[in-house]
């Protein structure tokens, strides 16, 4: 077991669990340098109470054991887990993980974080600022290192404004408008939608029975990006998306001049058709902030959290629904 | 069996089957005057192929038998069935109903109609014009008596713009924006949402696991109406809803000057907060049309269709996905 008096002597474990799978990294506690990683495309099962702790541990414990063998089984000083929906759905995880990790590796310092927090720590480390994580959904998280502020991330019916699902949904609505002869329609988007999904009138029958409707909607977002240069309706959708994303960043960004705002996640790989209006909206709503490159991804963020726990240098604030600390690392 | 030469001698059956239940009327073929009605709050079961024909017939055949006993078992000259989703989902119904009705009552003239068509026939009879049917969803249907034009009705993710689900969803988004401190938020809507659903942060957990998400969203629409007088955000949502509804009407309304536009369905019971911006948008987009009172409901429309079939006076156009005719009444 690692003693509290030698916090940085060993390794740390970082875990990123989300809809697209599970990733685990083993890193040096002192430097945060990653030594080995494991990844699986099988997402951890979720039930009504959130992530299944059993399924999570079934995957994580052997993965860490294998990684540790390859690094000489040095002691694990701390672990950090970032998981989608940790905030509202992770009761089972919170109840079972601390003991399971302690039993398996003797690790007592543990952080459980919402995936938005690991995205933040990956993008900006422990600096104050704001991070917008965009993919199928969209959430903005900001901190002045005293408390967190969160905006959006409410899902495709209540928000996620400007997300992949939001852009794709707006694009498909514009396609159906063109199909009907209603104002606001886009013939190029109708043509793209019919190439992807078949005749427009069949789209409801394809979409509504699916359980992954937000992902189906988001799958159309790149088409909106591709049409934007020549189609004013598509360009208008991305201008509104850029404004929504900037509004979320504005709501969470600390007031300090020069606060960094980082954009992270697959949404921003759409490139200039989205980034140009977004930069313009950020310039208008947050003239004092500066756009920062995201330094790393959520797995890097989990490693950074674990390393900060191990070395007693954690500055990001605890929060009951965003970042929970257990064991000797807890405040 | 009713002969083709005495089309108006008997009775007609009208059926309205939808999400809120089943209604059946027995009426005079010659006048369309309703003699008896039956209603059940149990909606007909639907599966992947649409309405269950077995469940539908289990309810309709005994109901019609009971109504006929009370009217002296006079012959049935024609029947018309309006059903939600007939357009895309009614294969089983189309395959089984004609024979089942002929076996039960000797009736050979049958119309199967999308619920939007029975709404049209109930509201405007057989005149050319446009009808907007609004509730949880929203669809506009228009005809010049040569062909039908349809706009929207694509469901809460692809359209139904201006519907109850659309208004409620926009209201809840505004509530979440206020919760986050984002622009475009409404504190009055946040307060109404928390009174109805509890703390805002718990709303995703309440909404997304439901299978009747559109109905949950639509349940918030009346709150948007109530807030509109004092809250500019709520008023803005209803102004956009009014514009969307007028756009759907514009897309389907025949060009003839003075064409009637009727609004029907529970959505419009929201009253002036929605109707005032809607009238203004209709005046702008359809200056040549006139708003008409809906004469009757979809059950009255089904009766009107059946009476027209029985008397050989059907003027509304056949359409493979909106109005199908079977037996001697078919063109």
UniProtKB/TrEMBL annotation, chains A, B:
<dbReference type="GO" id="GO:0016301">
    <property type="term" value="F:kinase activity"/>
</dbReference>
<dbReference type="InterPro" id="IPR043129">
    <property type="entry name" value="ATPase_NBD"/>
</dbReference>
<dbReference type="InterPro" id="IPR052519">
    <property type="entry name" value="Euk-type_GlcNAc_Kinase"/>
</dbReference>
<keyword id="KW-0418">Kinase</keyword>
<dbReference type="InterPro" id="IPR002731">
    <property type="entry name" value="ATPase_BadF"/>
</dbReference>
<feature type="domain" description="ATPase BadF/BadG/BcrA/BcrD type">
    <location>
        <begin position="13"/>
        <end position="284"/>
    </location>
</feature>
<dbReference type="Pfam" id="PF01869">
    <property type="entry name" value="BcrAD_BadFG"/>
</dbReference>
<keyword id="KW-0808">Transferase</keyword>
<protein>
    <submittedName>
        <fullName>N-acetylglucosamine kinase</fullName>
    </submittedName>
</protein>
């Amino acid at each position: 077991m690692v003693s509290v008096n030698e916090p940085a002597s060993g390794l740390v474990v970082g875990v990123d669990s989300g809809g697209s799978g599970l990733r685990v990294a083993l890193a040096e506690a002192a430097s945060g340098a990653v030594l080995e990683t494991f990844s699986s495309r099988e997402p951890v099962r979720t039930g009504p109470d959130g992530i299944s702790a059993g399924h999570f541990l079934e995957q994580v414990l052997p993965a860490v054991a294998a990684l540790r063998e390859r690094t000489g089984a040095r002691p694990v000083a701390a672990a950090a887990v970032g998981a989608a929906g940790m905030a509202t759905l992770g009761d089972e995880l919170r109840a079972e993980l601390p003991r399971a990790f302690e039993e398996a590796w003797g690790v007592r310092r543990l952080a459980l974080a919402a995936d938005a927090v690991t995205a933040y720590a990956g993008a900006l480390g422990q600096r104050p600022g704001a991070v917008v994580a965009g993919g199928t959904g969209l959430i903005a998280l900001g901190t002045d290192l005293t408390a967190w502020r969160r905006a959006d991330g409410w899902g495709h019916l209540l928000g996620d404004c400007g997300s992949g699902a939001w852009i794709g949904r707006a694009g498909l609505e514009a396609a159906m408008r063109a199909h009907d002869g209603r104002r606001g329609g886009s013939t190029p988007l109708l043509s793209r939608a019919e190439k992807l999904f078949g005749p427009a009138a069949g789209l409801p029958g394809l979409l509504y029975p699916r359980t992954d409707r937000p992902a189906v909607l988001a799958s159309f977002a790149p088409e909106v990006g591709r049409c934007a240069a020549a189609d004013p309706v598509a360009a208008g959708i991305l201008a509104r998306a850029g404004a929504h994303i900037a509004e979320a960043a504005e709501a969470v960004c600390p007031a300090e001049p020069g606060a960094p705002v980082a954009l992270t996640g697959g949404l921003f790989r759409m490139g200039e058709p989205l980034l140009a209006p977004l930069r313009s909206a950020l310039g208008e709503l947050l003239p004092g902030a500066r756009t920062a490159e995201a330094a790393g991804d959520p797995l890097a963020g989990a490693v950074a959290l674990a390393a900060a726990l191990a070395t007693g240098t954690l500055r990001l604030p605890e929060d009951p629904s965003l970042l929970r600390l257990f064991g000797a690392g807890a405040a």
